[in-house]
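#structure-requests
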Amino acid sequence: MTIELHPNFKKSFKKRLAGNPKLVQKFAERLELFKQDPKSALLKNHGLRGTKVGLRAFAITGDIRVVYEQTDSGIVLYDIGTHNQVY
């Protein structure tokens, strides 16, 4: 599975997480888990509704989420942040 980072994701990651080494580490761990088992209960992977229909999200921590889209060629990560920031 190939994972592509959308420019918006890179900007959000830098702004919201890069200053916190613990969150960066947790992101790396959860992304690895996502690559191995996207349906793991720890990820709380779910489809989105409303204006984000077609996108999915998974949890990094209790409140930090990654919004992504599954495409024919792999996964595109679109956004990362708290529940209120990404939804």
